[in-house]
Amino acid sequence: SSGINAEYGYLTMSRTGSWLELESDPGLFTLLVHEYGAEGVQVDEVYDINKEIKGPVYGFIFLFKWIEERRARRKPGNENFVEDTEIINSMFFAHQSIHNSCATHALLSILMNCQGVNIGPTLKRIKLFTEGMDPESKGYVIGNLPKLAHIHNSYAKPERPKLPEKLSKSEAGITCKSAIDTFHFVSYVPINGRLF
Q1: Which residues contact 118 (CB under 8 A, 6 or more apart)?
Q2: Which of the residues 34, 99, 102, 105 is marked catalytic?
Q3: pLDDT by residue (tens digit) across 94-132?
Q4: What backbone phi and psi angles, to 5 degrees, belong to 58?
Q5: pTM of the entire predicted model
Q6: Is-contact 155 31, C-beta < 8 A?
């Protein structure tokens, strides 16, 4: 069989449908964590990083404004990446390949790397199935599991109406730019003494 099983959906070459945008809300993220099957954990908002955080911390999720130009300006060699494929494939990191699935990816990157946390049967099966896979393959699995997409989308905010495009002048002439900003959830997880 090419999939995990019928309960979790079969992996196919076609997309399972679109994932919807989620609000940045720790209560909503906690609901997602519980729907995915994890027990005994919750997502809390941190207002002051100088204050002591009570209880175990498994990771952080930040919401960044997505600026494509900034990504394009990155210079190779300026960042410190782990390149050892054995290390990379031994942790759970799934490269996001499906639009709007970053909230689920951020949560799973933390949950699947937690020691001593009951992540539940669904996430255990996914973790076992993807063990040893590269990040791109793990991302493909996550993006093509209807059960995860359904849970994710059940907490999505209503779709925003399309706003008119803004015209801006540039050296090349007049260009159109969307009037809606795009944001991206990114998780940071401590693994073996390093921050990923």
Answers
A1: 38, 39, 40
A2: 102
A3: 888 888 888 898 999 999 998 889 999 999 999 999 998
A4: -95, -20
A5: 0.72
A6: yes
